[in-house]
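Hi everyone, sorry if this is the wrong subforum. Our group has a chain we'd like a structural model of before ordering constructs, and none of us has done structure prediction before. Sequence below.
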Amino acid sequence: MKINNTDRAQILTEALPYIQKYKDKVIVVKYGGNAMINEELKNAVMGDIVLLSLIGIKVVLVHGGGPEISDMLKRVGKESTFVNGLRVTDAETAEIAQMVLAGKVNKSLVNLIESRGGKSVGLSGPDGKLIVAKQLDEKLGYVGEIVSVNVEPINILLDNGYIPVISSIGCDMNNNVYNINADTVAAMIAAELGAESLVSMTDICGILRDKDDPSTLIPKITVSETPSLIREGIISGGMIPKIECCTEAIRRGVRKVFIIDGRVPHSILIETLTDEGIGTMFVSGDRL
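Answer:
Right subforum, don't worry. Here is the predicted structure as tokens:
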């Protein structure tokens, strides 16, 4: 569909209030799942993030890379084992996770951002002790629980016009590295930065009352509503820890959290710069 110049001008005019609202504010984007696998879509998402940065929004990108870790483990003959959605991580798996997340995935995203005209630097937990962690559960091995987040390196980059790209690897004071759930990392970083919003780009369209019916999308959920939605089974399985991260971010001061479908072209722009919105928005009970 071709858009004429008048329509282009109208689109920009409608976006203006949102550009003004978010200017100089921090948005943390959690990027993961199957939305990262499609190269064409990944390229488009990085272009959208560059656009947000260029109009004055401070964007922090936090990424996972579970499918890439599983692929690399398969290549070296190791099977992936999960307990309650978390990957059991022995010392070798932790080394591979660091190599894949802080190396291959992180640097490919940085490179894509740079190729689209943005300025970007990749970080992981050991950089400036950005993410200090401890063992979450002995049975899970090197799976980490966050102890502290040092946002100083992130703020230095943001203040100088860079887009920080952060992999979900943590470390401790004994040089151990830990694989950490990327939703948890994004929520903690958003809270420590006092972010205006956290946007979780996933491979679902949001929270549905009926998981088989997209028309039952719930556009807004308050933190107080989440326990009943879990009891009713509307939020279940692997979505529970993701939603717990959303609600924890809100409790820690993030104004809004969005779960959106990263497979939809330009979904982050639709959510951020239009009246329409997309996906499900989480807020505290007293915020609109």
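For your construct planning: Residues 229 and 235 are 6 Å apart (CA to CA). The mean pLDDT is 89.
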